[in-house]
Amino acid sequence: MLEESVGLGAVTVLAVLEQAYFSLQVIYARRKYSVSPPATAGPPEFERIFRAQANCSEYFPIFLTVLWTAGLFLSPGMSSVCGLLYLYGRLLYFWGYSESAHRRLAPLYFSARVLWVLIGFSSLGLFLTFCRVYLKLDVLLELWTAVALY
């Protein structure tokens, strides 16, 4: 089981590094635009960077939860690939939002779709595992058997 989770672990560490990068960008922006903590208001350029980092941080626990749930209960490989796509989308979101509010939209929609896929994978994995463990019903085996009969 541990070997199967290496991709999930790698994506998790990469995600933490991405969050650190976003936080550093806020620190640099505070210095550049002379916005001292705890202030969160300043020039629009600063506020966009600040909001981009805050938004990414707000979704981070959701991402980690569904990444690992989908990976443990359905497929570590598919979940890891989705995790990489999500991180790529968030990086594009951050860069886009840093430039203009409008440039955040396409990457935001992309990463939201990937997050919904992970939520779907998590739900499916939990459902299949619940059926197998508690109902003694292998739903996938039953489906394949039914399809093979036709």
TrEMBL record:
Keyword Phosphoprotein found: yes
Membrane spanning residue stretches: 6-24, 59-88, 108-135
A biological process term (GO) from this entry: leukotriene biosynthetic process
Matching InterPro entries: 5_LipOase_AP, MAPEG, MAPEG-like_dom_sf, Membr-assoc_MAPEG
Coiled coil residues, start to end: none
EC number, UniProt record: 4.4.1.20
Alphabetic keyword roster: Endoplasmic reticulum, Leukotriene biosynthesis, Lyase, Membrane, Nucleus, Phosphoprotein, Transferase, Transmembrane, Transmembrane helix
A single MF term (Gene Ontology): leukotriene-C4 synthase activity
UniProt subunit comment: Homotrimer. Interacts with ALOX5AP and ALOX5.
Function in brief: Catalyzes the conjugation of leukotriene A4 with reduced glutathione (GSH) to form leukotriene C4 with high specificity. Can also catalyze the transfer of a glutathionyl group from glutathione (GSH) to 13(S),14(S)-epoxy-docosahexaenoic acid to form maresin conjugate in tissue regeneration 1 (MCTR1), a bioactive lipid mediator that possess potent anti-inflammatory and proresolving actions.
PANTHER family assigned: LEUKOTRIENE C4 SYNTHASE, MICROSOMAL GLUTATHIONE S-TRANSFERASE
Protein known as: Leukotriene C4 synthase
Organism, scientific name: Acanthochromis polyacanthus (spiny chromis)
Species lineage: Eukaryota, Metazoa, Chordata, Craniata, Vertebrata
